[in-house]
User: Which sequence fits this backbone?
RNA sequence: GCGCCCUUAGCUCAGUCGGAUAGAGCGACAGCCUUCUAAGCUGUGGGUCGGGGGUUCGAAUCCCUCAGGGCGCGCCA
């Protein structure tokens, strides 16, 4: 059972008071009542907007209502003082003992402090990364991987039953192109007399994926199959002779490499789903039949896009899905003019499959270049699920990689792109993950290699890790001095915390008690970056308190001849370490014990 | 041409379903190490929140409009 959030407790107190003050108040207005932290300590510990949101319906002046509410709230057991303020806020000052009591609660709960019942165990599927298995992961994949992973952790913390999923796009033309490229490396391993230009001319659409990473695949094919994939008479052999074999081997090799890269990043999906397997199972035809039976398909011809007609545009009859009935701008093709299925059809089948597996809610994390695709898939899932909101997309905007003040051109063919592995080798997993989470995902982001690589000391991740290391250091010193029993959470949870009174200590406590509501708000908004900023602020509060001890020996955490104060401060330090560790856990960043 | 995202301090970015005097880091300037890790702390300076209009008790936040940047726009995945 999650520990009740102190803000939720006070909000319940406010609502109960309103019930006696304004019986029968509008429930919609009551839902807008908030109890939130004050921006300035001088305003108190918490503030409520209750009088402001209810004044209109009650036909009362906000300030008057606030005064009445404040008077009534003053009697609540948690509240030391309640005062009307500003246009109609009520500022609440809590008894310090109530605030300090949260420290004990944190110590008893450990890292489960901040877990929430918000999600109510609803099964949620978070699909992210899903890089095409055509080469190593590069920086462009990184943001979605980190954001998706942190979001999954965050939702789990908020009480959802989360499954992390990776969709393998192994059914389209891209993997055939990969197979051709792998086959070229196979021929090279066979010492083919064919030159690259001559081979290129044989490949439908031209030879792609010329990077070195397929050489090993070609050699492995040679080792396993000898020259049996080549044909004596034809050079190269027709694809019917080798395509399926080479494609399977190449995709398997790419997925193995991607899983290694993901592991380096600390990403470990629960489920990998193969598009090819899905198509092979007949799921696509089944979902098309299902939509057809619902009267949502028709044969039709689309209008050309306005203002920018493709040069080779000609009207063609296709099977179209009535996406406009579900909020999209135009109806969308499920079958190409030659009768084969579009990628969209496969994607509908995939999302139908996720719904069929029992997920009540689907979240996809996509790159911004897929932004134009959101409306149609939302329409499709809405049609399938028969309800609104079963599916949402978190879009990650482009990461511009900068080096020496210049954008790095990303080209697979030229080999100038930065691989995920390179990046992690240079700056480390923790810095990559934290940096990717210090921006809203829907804002474009500049990833400055020089700043993160060369000046890594200034990266915010170290600031937060340092706070944790310092807290752990204090606990280690205390343990060395007085034994393990003195720093055990159970013992500290029972400590008399009355000596925690300074402004820096109380500021830290106020920050810590905001952790549960931060988790809930971030989860509800699908914004894991809020956790990174919370941790930064928490670290700042802790570093400030630390330095109080440098300036004034009486403010040090460990004072041998003052055991009560020391225990109280150890409790605060231990609670801080727990919340930092917990937050870093959401982000997938290591809570280091020491910085050396 | 249309759709979606973005525009906040010199730079990179936060800003809690609209809330009180808009914040942080970097950079600049001035200070703090015989003491639990100075990868830290304290102070100073720096903003017509892209422009304009509207909604309201209240707008960086919501709506309209204009400007600028990004992504995308039938049979690619």
Assistant:
């Amino acid at each position: 059972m999650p520990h009740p959030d102190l803000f939720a407790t006070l909000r319940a107190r406010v609502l109960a008071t309103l019930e006696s003050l304004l019986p029968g108040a509008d429930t919609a207005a009551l839902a807008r009542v908030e109890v939130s932290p004050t921006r300035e300590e001088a305003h108190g510990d918490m503030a409520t907007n209750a009088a402001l949101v209810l004044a209109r319906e009650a036909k009362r002046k906000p300030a008057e209502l606030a005064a009445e509410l404040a008077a009534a709230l003053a009697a609540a057991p948690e509240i030391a003082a309640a005062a009307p303020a500003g246009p109609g806020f009520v500022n609440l000052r809590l008894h310090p003992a109530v605030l300090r009591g949260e420290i004990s609660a944190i110590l008893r709960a450990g890292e489960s402090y901040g877990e929430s019942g918000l999600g109510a165990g609803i099964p949620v599927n978070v699909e992210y990364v899903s890089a095409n298995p055509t080469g190593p992961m590069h920086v462009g994949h990184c943001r979605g991987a980190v954001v998706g992973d942190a979001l999954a952790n965050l939702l789990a913390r908020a009480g959802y039953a989360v499954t992390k999923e990776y969709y393998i796009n192994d059914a389209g033309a891209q993997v055939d192109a990969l197979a051709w490229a792998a086959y070229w490396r196979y021929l090279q391993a066979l010492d083919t007399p064919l030159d690259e230009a001559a081979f290129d001319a044989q490949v439908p659409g031209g030879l792609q994926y010329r990077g070195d990473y397929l050489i090993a695949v070609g050699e492995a094919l040679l080792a396993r199959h000898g020259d049996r994939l080549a044909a004596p008479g034809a050079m190269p052999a027709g694809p019917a002779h080798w395509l399926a074999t080479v494609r399977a081997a190449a995709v398997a090799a790419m997925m193995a490499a991607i899983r290694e890269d993901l592991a380096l990043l600390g990403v470990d999906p629960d489920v990998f789903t193969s598009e090819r397997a899905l198509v092979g199972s007949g799921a696509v035809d089944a979902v098309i039949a299902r939509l057809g039976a619902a009267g949502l398909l028709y044969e039709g011809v689309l209008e050309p896009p306005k203002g920018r007609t493709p040069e080779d545009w000609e009207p063609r009859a296709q099977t179209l899905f009535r996406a406009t009935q579900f909020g999209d701008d135009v109806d969308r093709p499920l079958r190409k003019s030659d009768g084969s299925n579009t990628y969209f059809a496969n994607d509908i089948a995939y999302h139908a499959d996720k719904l069929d597996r029992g997920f009540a809610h689907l979240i996809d994390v996509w790159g911004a270049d897929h932004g134009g695709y959101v409306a149609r898939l939302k329409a499709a899932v809405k049609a399938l699920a028969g309800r609104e909101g079963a599916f949402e997309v978190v879009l990650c905007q482009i990461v511009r990689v900068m080096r020496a003040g210049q954008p790095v051109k990303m080209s697979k063919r030229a080999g100038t792109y930065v691989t995920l592995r390179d990046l992690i080798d240079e700056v480390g997993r923790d810095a990559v993950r934290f940096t990717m989470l210090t921006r809203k995902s829907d804002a474009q982001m500049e990833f400055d290699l020089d700043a993160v690589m060369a000046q890594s000391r200034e990266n915010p991740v170290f600031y937060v890790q340092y706070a944790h290391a310092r807290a752990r250091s204090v606990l280690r010193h205390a343990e060395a001095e007085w034994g393990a029993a003195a720093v055990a959470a159970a013992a500290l949870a029972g400590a008399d915390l009355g000596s925690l009174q300074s402004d820096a200590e109380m500021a830290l406590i106020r920050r810590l008690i905001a952790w549960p509501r931060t988790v809930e708000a971030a989860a509800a908004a699908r914004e894991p970056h809020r956790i990174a900023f919370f941790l930064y602020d928490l670290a700042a509060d802790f570093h400030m308190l630390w330095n109080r001890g440098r300036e004034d020996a009486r403010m040090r955490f460990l004072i041998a001849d003052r055991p009560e104060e020391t225990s109280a401060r150890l409790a605060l330090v231990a609670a801080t370490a727990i919340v930092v560790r917990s937050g870093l856990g959401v982000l997938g960043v290591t809570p280091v014990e020491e910085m050396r």
Summary: Residues 563-587 of chain A form the longest helix (25 residues).
